[in-house]
Amino acid sequence: MMRMFTVQHWRTRLRCAVLVVAAVPLFLNAMSALAASDAPVRVKDLGKLQGWRENALVGYGIVTGLAGTGDAPTNRSTKQALANVFSQFNMTIAPEQVQSRNVAVVMVTAALPTFAREGDTLDVTVTSAGDARSLVGGTLLLTPLKAPNGRVYALAQGPLSVGGYRYDANGNVVQKNHPTVGSVPAGATVEVGTGANMVDARKNITFVLAEPDYTTANRVANAINAQLGAPLAEARDASGIEIRIPESLRDHPVQFFSRVENVTVEPDRRAKVVINERTGTVVAGGDVRIAKVAISHGDLKISIATENTVSQPFYIGHGGPGVQTAIVSNSHVDVDERNAPAFVAATNNTVADLVQALAQMKTNTRDIISILRAVKAAGALHAELVVQ
């Protein structure tokens, strides 16, 4: 499989990796043995009870106190918003009369947890909704945060924390990160508490796996029944395990939930290899298997040197209109193929073995990614290949 040409300063270097899918038995087989026997984990680390969810809140507010970096004076939404604020304090000012660069209209967002009581505080995120250049040094005025049902559940206010800045003068700009986004830690106060009903009409609860898998769901149900000493759980599908609350604990559901959450189980793991070509990252479980294969890796370098010369006629201007100066390019191509092939063959190999073998051959990460994709295309990689 050949790589694309890249040209720099009239010279082109080509690296070529010829792949025939592969693996080697190395000391990383020990890693595979360890990965195959994963330690049991708690049920609560595999998912959550059905009904457990966060609720999105959003509001529209104003940030004041900016040092001339707010919305432009011609921004109509800013003028109207500021005039509305003034009207709350018995000040009648027409929107057309509002002129300020120290104010910015913003959108405020927060997440209301599953169980929230009046007086709890929430972190809020503030983003510019106008043409403000920076929110550094600003303070968010009192902003109601609403849920999709239109009801106000929290009130947000406080000074902004911005992880960046922007300063400009005379056409020069110095900027770090995104100065038009900030946060107010614990800046919202819950006004209306929320809760969730985890128990259905039949006095059952449903545990939902974060990653649906039939094998894991069946193991969770069996572990709950074994460790609680009664047939209370049954896997309904790949993600849901229905659990019956015993009559002795129906008046104490929290105690029963705690016992279920702390049940330990050995989950099944689907074989995956995740690669990120932008950062050159490869992540795979140590026990991800590949078929018996081999690697041949070589290096081909092509250099193209171009020399430009000028052909100057002796009698320019006396030989007619067709006589003129010409630029002549002479190119020299040099091909250097350094064959350093490596061939290995083995059985019961893993991706960890393959990566270790390629590293010993001084193969860079991006070539390893190409090799893994070729292995998958050949049908020798027994795992799902996820390309980010």
UniProtKB/TrEMBL annotation:
<dbReference type="InterPro" id="IPR001782">
    <property type="entry name" value="Flag_FlgI"/>
</dbReference>
<comment type="similarity">
    <text>Belongs to the FlgI family.</text>
</comment>
<keyword id="KW-0975">Bacterial flagellum</keyword>
<comment type="function">
    <text>Assembles around the rod to form the L-ring and probably protects the motor/basal body from shearing forces during rotation.</text>
</comment>
<feature type="signal peptide">
    <location>
        <begin position="1"/>
        <end position="35"/>
    </location>
</feature>
<keyword id="KW-0732">Signal</keyword>
<dbReference type="Pfam" id="PF02119">
    <property type="entry name" value="FlgI"/>
</dbReference>
<keyword id="KW-0282">Flagellum</keyword>
<keyword id="KW-0969">Cilium</keyword>
<protein>
    <recommendedName>
        <fullName>Flagellar P-ring protein</fullName>
    </recommendedName>
</protein>
<comment type="subunit">
    <text>The basal body constitutes a major portion of the flagellar organelle and consists of four rings (L,P,S, and M) mounted on a central rod.</text>
</comment>
<keyword id="KW-0966">Cell projection</keyword>
